[in-house]
């Protein structure tokens, strides 16, 4: 029994941010009903990395475990009525339609809260529900560019490098997950539901609390260096450096200690609080040259002995085999009926009494339609009639 056991979530979202947020709720025991078109959610048909899978591609598989699939046509009056019936007993409704679409479909907060005042309604958008950018597409890389963060690393004058993951989507998912939990807690105290609005632009902006405060309060300019320093507001040396056989991370060591370890005499007389900023490019360049002399393993041993913050640069193949990752149980494995053994990141929060579990893998389109409607009070004849009318679809394994 997860900590959210007994909570019913209607997940009407697509792509990554919404489904990921709903999956987190499912990981904690919520009954998540994925409401998708009769042809399947968009992500079923778009596979990241070309990983198509057997019947379920890996993108969809990774974002939709611990859910049941209800396939309905919301543009059909009968299909829409099915959803409204389920809203009566739902706790959370989550959607990431473009602004205005929910209202056109009749599933906006005002309409659904009139049916169920206790409903927590989570709405995710790219830029906000209104305003000059409300109709722009909220795409991860586009938002990374707008966030300002890409110009806090790398070389001055060179094109910035994007994050190596869908960073804005993931952060937005966690923001929505947090918002849903907070609203459920409020409901426990007051009995009332509410509208929770989350947008990608605010999500990626507000996690830069420290960096943006240095700019807005400390009035320090965001200026990249000639060398590929990893963060404009952290002193040198700070970044990834090549060794004789790979790469190593070094994070702002005390220059005297660092100079002694790598054999750079000029560092011994530098002042940490001033020279590490004013001579940043020089420090970076000298560090880069010195670290080419030994292997990553050799440097890690020397630097750790001197209490210098350092670490390896992993690829995914290294990460999944890391001893701490294995110790933590960071990845979970389970059998999926069509995709076989699935190994995927699990839930990162540990609860002593209500642990997260993988109760089911990502569903096929409409796999649980009949089951969910039966629970909602529809009899077999009514379900069959809805299927014949095309208002719903049911899938089989």
UniProtKB/TrEMBL annotation:
Q: What class of enzyme is it?
A: transferase
| Highest taxon in the source lineage | Bacteria
Q: Is Transferase set as a keyword in this record?
A: yes
Q: Which Pfam families match?
A: CoA_transf_3
List the molecular function annotations (GO) for this entry. Answer: transferase activity
Alphabetized UniProt keyword annotations: Transferase
Alphabetized InterPro entries for the sequence: CoA-transferase_III_domain, CoA-Trfase_fam_III, CoA-Trfase_III_dom3_sf, CoA-Trfase_III_dom_1_sf
Q: Does the keyword Transferase apply?
A: yes
Q: Which SUPFAM superfamilies match?
A: CoA-transferase family III (CaiB/BaiF)
Give the Enzyme Commission number.
Answer: 2.8.3.-
Protein name per UniProt:
CoA transferase
UniProt organism field: Rhizobium mayense
